[in-house]
Amino acid sequence: MxxxxxxxxxxxxxxxxxxxxxxxxxxxxxxxxxxAITPSTPKRRVRHSLPAVLMRAGTSKGLxxxxxxxxxxxxxxxxxxxxxxxxxxxDARQIDxxxxxxxxxxxxxxxxxxxxxxxxVEYTFVxxxxxxxxxxxxxNCGNICSGxxxxxxxxRLVAPPPGARAVDVRIFNTNTSKLIVETxxxxxxxxxxxxxxxxxxxxxxxxxxxxxxxxxxxGSMTGKLFPSGERSEKIVVEEVRALGDFxxxxxxxDSANPFVLVDAQSLPAPLRGQPADSxxxxxxxxAIRRRGAVRxxxxxxxxxxxxxxxxxxxxxxxxxxxxxxxxxxxAADIRVQAYSMGKPHPSLQLTGGVTLASAVITEGxxxxxxxGGEGSTLQTEGIPTPRRTPSPVEGALKSPAGEVLGxxxxxxxxxxxxxxxxxxxxxxDVEVWAHEGAEGVAVDRCVVTRTARRLFEGNVLYYS
Length: 464
Prior knowledge:
Layout: H1 5-12, H2 18-22, E1 47-57, E2 60-66, H3 78-85, E3 107-113, E4 121-128, E5 135-136, H4 142-145, H5 148-154, E6 166-173, E7 178-185, E8 210-215, E9 233-237, E10 246-254, E11 258-263, H6 269-272, H7 279-295, H8 302-305, E12 313-318, H9 322-327, E13 334-340, E14 343-344, H10 350-360, H11 366-371, E15 397-398, E16 404-405, E17 417-423, E18 426-437, E19 440-450, E20 452-463
Parallel strand pairs: 2-3, 4-6, 11-12, 13-17
Antiparallel strand pairs: 1-2, 1-20, 3-4, 4-5, 6-7, 7-8, 8-19, 9-10, 10-11, 12-13, 13-14, 15-16, 17-18, 18-19
């Protein structure tokens, strides 16, 4: 039956009301869907408002939150943080939150004033998982940490001295019980200078330079630089069926964060041509990481190691190619492919830079062997002799509990030596101060340059 336009427009035109359409004497030539409207049901969830600042800190991005705005106990943090980031219901896209769908954009810094002697603020790092409803507080994030100093000044948790153009912010990281000192530039009114000419690989655009000093970073979770007691060793992996049993050369080290450093040349031959994110490469990386966790005493079993993705971290080490060093302004000492939460890291964790630099200057490690090979740029004479290099807090005292008191780092950033690390987004320079201790090289501090800025400040709304 042909469509009767005239009849439709005359009797049930679009300007008539629904009851007129339903009671017309001439039925329409097609069925009209009627939507059933049911009474609204009572709200089953409560909307919450979480004050927060979203910051880009180094090559990471995350929420910065006052400790007072979260529940009293850390066990209760998971619900608001998972919801705020969008990781509820195991959403890998984090579409219902402010997370960016990757490990480097799903991070949280919780900051509070400190009552510890010689410390300005306390900071807890939280890695919010992407694609699973879990949070990890087992380690620190150096990139996110680089935003804590500016945040503390901007939030008036730290007041710069009158007339000062730079301020040292002393930060106690609760994840690792370690001190980080950040030198932040301020204007004549004491406001943070975010804009500047400093460039860091992995970030397009410049900013004001922030010096991040990891003070005595050794033993962040294990209490030792080499938790297994060995500077290098072989780990046998049996869990990858496609490859069978194989062994890799590793250094298990804990400086700023626990890391499994792997000599890439010792990986099984079928893996060397694989992309870093191929299913086989990811399976191998996780298998090595879990074995390293057990060997370092961070997990009792392989299965238990799989439950904590944040630590230890893992990185493959290799020599920079001749072409890379030829094209670079300054030759790199070593090349790295790091992994974060089971995925290839686009650049390098800041704590990874500290860890790797600590390994490079220490004889007997996989990193030292790779960086010090034939044709290497590594200057072994730059490694401190038994005569001690200056302390990061020269003249400081320590309380009976071991907290650092007094001292200043402003203007004290001439390193004993610099380790240059090539990664996927560029090169990271790590300034290392160390001295010869009873058990070899002892790391006093590692200093890395970062930039950071606020992206928004307000409230994150979520339901529970």
